[in-house]
Amino acid sequence: MKKLVLLLVALAPAAVALDAEISFKSTEIEPGIFLVEAVGGFGGGNMAVLAGEDHVAMIDDSMPPLAESLLTHVTATAGRPIDFMINTHVHGDHTGGNAHFAASGTVVFAHDNIRKRLLDDPSGAGGPGGLPVVTFGDGVTFHLGNIEARVIHLPDAHTDGDAIIHFPNANIIHAGDILFHAIFPFIDLDSGGTVDGYIEAQKRIWAMADDDTKIIPGHGSLTDKAGLKSDIDMLVESRELVKALIDKGMGVDDIVAANPLAKFDSFNWSFITSERVTRTLYRSLTTEK
C-alpha cells in the first residue's frame, strides 16, 4: 500500500503540471448533499459535501497538489467552511488533502486503522498535519441538522480501514473504494483488503439499497442498486473463472496468458487491467484462509 500511496502522490504534481485544466464540479443530488468530482484529469476519487443547517462535513479530499483549489471550490459550494472531514480509507487520492483542510480548521475523522497506517507514513495525508484526530471502530453518526450521515466500517474489503456513509433519509450511499463502478476494482491486499471481504462488503451495500438509492462509487459514475449488482456479478464470476484454472494446477503466469477475464475487457482502465485483477485474484485464492 505504501508504494501505491507514494506513486499516487508522486504522479499528482506531474498530472497537475501537465494538465492545468483539472478543476472540480459539484452536483446537488439531494438537498444539501453534493457529489464532488474532478474534471479535466485524474483528481482522486469521488467526494461529497454535506451542507447541513449549522455544520458542513465532507467525504474525502483528493491529493495534495489539488488541495488548495479543492478547498476553495467546496467552501464556495457549501457557502461556509468545512467543519468535518470523513476519510473512507487510507489511499492518498482520498486523504491527500487532509493536512491542507486541517490547517483551515477542519477536523478529520477516520477509522482506527487509517490513523495507524498514516502514522507510519503521513505523506498520504499531505503530511503529519493531516493525521485523523478523531477515530472510530465500527462507525460514527453525524447529525448535520436535516442531514443524518451514518459512517459504517466494513472490514477487510478494499483495505482494513474502509468506511461507507449511509444517508438513510436522503437514500444515498457513498461507497468509497468498495465500489469502482463499471471498471475493475483495486483490492489492496497489502493494506488488509481481501477479495472475499470486498465482495461481502459490496453485498452488504446492495442489501442496504432499494431501487431508488443513489450510490456514489469511489471511482466511476453515480449509480444505483442495479449498477452495483452488475459490478458484484462481474467480480464473483471473475473469481470463479480464475479459481477454475487454479484447480487445474495452472500457475499465475499461465493463467494470465489464458486471459480468463476476456469477457470483461470493457472494465479495463488505465490503473487496473484484467491482468492486474487476475493476479490479485490468484494471490487471494492461493493465500487467503
Structural commentary:
- The protein has 289 residues and is α/β, with parallel strands linked by helices.
- It has one domain (2-224): Ribonuclease Z/Hydroxyacylglutathione hydrolase-like (Metallo-beta-lactamase, Chain A), CATH 3.60.15.10.
- It contains 9 helices and 12 strands.
- The chain has helices spanning 2-18, 67-78, 92-95, 98-103, 112-120, 195-208, 225-247, 252-258, 274-287; strands at 23-30, 33-39, 47-51, 56-59, 84-86, 107-111, 134-136, 139-144, 147-153, 163-167, 172-174, 214-216.
- The strands form 2 sheets. It has a 7-stranded mixed beta sheet. It has a 5-stranded mixed beta sheet with strand order 8-9-10-11-12, with no helix packed on it.
- α8 (252-258) runs antiparallel to α9.
- The longest helix is centred in the last third of the chain and has 23 residues, at 225-247.
List the helices and strands and how they pair.
Layout lengths: L1 H17 L4 E8 L2 E7 L7 E5 L4 E4 L7 H12 L5 E3 L5 H4 L2 H6 L3 E5 H9 L13 E3 L2 E6 L2 E7 L9 E5 L4 E3 L20 H14 L5 E3 L8 H23 L4 H7 L15 H14 L2
Parallel strand pairs: 4-5, 5-6, 6-7, 11-12
Antiparallel strand pairs: 1-2, 2-3, 3-4, 8-9, 9-10, 10-11
Helix pairs in contact: 6-7, 7-9, 8-9
Summarize the helix and strand pattern as letters: HEEEEHEHHEHEEEEEHEHHH
* Terminus-to-terminus distance: 21 Å
What structural category arises from helix and sheet content?
alpha/beta
Strand content: 15-25%
- Spatial sequence of strands, sheet with the most strands: 1-2-3-4-5-6-7
Count of β-strands = 12
Number of domains: 1
